[in-house]
From TrEMBL:
InterPro entries: AAA+_ATPase, ABC_transporter-like_ATP-bd, ABC_transporter-like_CS, ABC_transpr_PhnC, MetN_ABC_transporter-like, P-loop_NTPase. It holds the Pfam family ABC_tran. Signal peptide: none annotated. This is Phosphonate ABC transporter ATP-binding protein. Residues 4-239 form the ABC transporter domain. One of its GO terms (cellular component) is membrane. Gene3D superfamilies: P-loop containing nucleotide triphosphate hydrolases (3.40.50.300). GO terms for molecular function: ABC-type phosphonate transporter activity; ATP binding; ATP hydrolysis activity. PANTHER family: AMINO ACID IMPORT ATP-BINDING PROTEIN, PHOSPHONATES IMPORT ATP-BINDING PROTEIN PHNC. It comes from the Bacteria. Keywords: ATP-binding, Cell membrane, Membrane, Nucleotide-binding, Phosphonate transport, Translocase, Transport.
Amino acid sequence: SSILEIRNLRKVYTDGTSALQGIDLQVQQGEFIAVIGPSGAGKSTLLRCINRLVQPSEGTVMFNGMDTTKASGGQIRKLRREVGMIFQSFNLIERVTVLRNVLHGRLGYMSSFSGALGLFSKRDIEEAMHILHRLGLHDQMYKRADELSGGQQQRVGIARALSQQPLLILADEPIASLDPVTSESIMKHLHTVCREDGITCLVNLHQVDVAKKFATRIIGIHKGSVVFDGPPEQLTDEA
Ligand code: ADP
Ligand code: ADP
């Protein structure tokens, strides 16, 4: 069944930039989709419209039965709990431990930063530790996030998103600041955990080779419009 259905999505920023010019997309649960296109094509705006970091100018975004373009404050908070985000610059809380970063994913960013771990339930802590094990980060749990390498930090980013038990993960250029070997490892981790947990994933990439290797479907965006939508093997060089 469709988890995401986007119709005629348009975004014109306040400075007049037309970033999305009528996007139509249907996404089935469990798809692992790479969104590709040159810088400025509108990939980031598309992801940001889905979780309402950006307010669309026109169109509908049905997510799990809700039109998110009309969501109120409370519905937007619910939406953001159901949609995990992964960022190019990781966006971790740098001065707290890896474990605590993951706990904040699970409990929301409103929970206290400074209190002892005792504020979290035993079950929450065990679940966070389990997720860190899955991402090979069990030895890094008590390190500060900013002590880790870029690849390790992005694995924490994946762990934090997973800890929300999201229906959908949106990853905005998650490997753009990593070297090729680390990039591949991150994509492998992301792909594996999404498949294991049945999570739908949209990942923005500018590396076509990486997109072809991991995605089950590729969406090509150019100047705010979809110019390709199909399986990786149908993507030819001119697309
Ligand atoms: P909105 O139209 O959604 O209200 P704004 O124009 O207020 O968006 O911009 C939101 C943020 O994006 C601001 O911090 C602004 O500096 C930044 N921004 C503005 N122009 C660009 C751009 N061309 N590319 C990326 N970010 C931009
Ligand atoms: P991509 O992720 O493919 O690089 P973006 O969605 O970031 O593309 O940007 C699409 C277009 O919208 C670009 O022309 C960009 O400069 C512009 N843009 C992005 N964010 C803003 C903003 N907040 N305000 C104004 N223009 C923006």
